Amino acid sequence: MHHRRTIHLPGYDYAQPGGYFATMVTQDRALLFGDIIDGEMRLNEFGIIADETWRWLAGQYPYVDLDVWTIMPNHVHGILMIKPIACRGGSIPGGGPAPIVKPLGQLIGAFKTVSAKRINLARCTPGVPVWQRNYYEHIIRDEKEMDAIRRYIQNNPSLWDLDREKPG
User: Do 70 and 154 meet the contact criterion of CB atoms below 8 Å apart?
Assistant: First the structure.
């Protein structure tokens, strides 16, 4: 029996406010989202869907902010910020109940589910896996780390030829 190893830091609350770096890779590292041309990513229809769905997270969840991200031919890198929710008496400013904060894994799951459904609808392949089952995550601990990760994400398209996610 195969047991998957967890990628999470034991005992850490992934719903707490902070910055998180995540990478999601396509099933079988399929080059699904476009091409790198002259060091610049050119999104195709499916890459545009992945980009729109990543942006959707911030609109769908009021406690999510997006920092930098890039859609690559077969993976997505992004920094997702979970903001604190100021609530008094169980409600948010302006009224209404305070939202339940989804942890990082559920947010990534929502992104992968919504983008896969939209991509599969566009390519007429219902139910076909778009994403690998897991994802890479890193808790961003300080501004120095944040700056380094931002540079890595922004420079990723120009370094595609050296990328370990690039197929053979």
Answer: yes
> What span, in angstroms and rounded, lies between the C-alpha atoms of 151 and 145?
10
List the domains of the chain with CATH numbers. Answer: 18-158 (3.30.70.1290)
Cα–Cα distance measured from residue 47 to residue 71, given in angstroms and rounded to the nearest whole number = 7
pTM of the predicted structure, to 2 decimals: 0.87
At 90-138, the pLDDT tens digits run 555 566 666 689 999 999 999 999 999 999 999 999 999 999 999 999 9
* DSSP label of 115: H
Burial class (CB in 10 A: 0-12, 13-18, 19+), 53: buried
Distances (CA, A) of 166 to 46, 93, 149: 18, 46, 19
